[in-house]
Amino acid sequence: MSAEVADGTTTSPTDDGRGRRRRTYGRVYAVLMYVVALAYFGQAVLAGQFLSGSYDALRWHQYGATFTDVLLVCALVAAGLLRWHGKGRLWPFLSALALLLANQAQNGAGAARLLSLHIPLGVAMIAGAVLVAVRVHSAGAPVEREVSS
């Protein structure tokens, strides 16, 4: 016997608690990754302002780097809960981890003023964040299990 929940999906009585947790963690992860993508676009705008001569933008660019670090750590926690507590998919955890590691390399390259690494890595991170944001709606979906006969 299965029950229909508010978002139109069906769950079995034994999966109801886990499915609810999975959807909640998936939504939290989705919101965090949307904000990460927006923050990365903001970082690009601030970098452009700095390169155009607005030197105050560099300080805000640095604050933005710290903000994205915090967002990605929170997303990593949400993705970890989604995967191991909600028995969800692994790709949200791996994507958050990859973006967090890239963010750390980006921070180091920016602090060292290695623009030849900092700028292309920033473009790649924006592309990665957009790809995750496009796919993030399926983060809370259950993992398909093969049924052996």
Q: Can you give a write-up of this model?
A:
With 149 residues, this protein is mainly alpha-helical. Helices cover 72% and strands 3% of the residues. The chain is built from four helices and two strands. Strands 1-2 form a two-stranded antiparallel sheet.
- Secondary-structure-derived class: mainly alpha
Low-confidence residue ranges: none
Largest sheet: 2 strands, antiparallel
Oligomer: single chain
Topology at a glance:
Layout: E1 3-4, E2 10-11, H1 16-51, H2 56-85, H3 91-111, H4 115-135
Antiparallel strand pairs: 1-2
Helix pairs in contact: 1-2, 1-4, 2-3, 3-4
Short key terms for the protein model shown above:
149 residues; mainly alpha; 3% strand; elongated
Structure in a nutshell:
The protein has 4 helices and 2 strands.
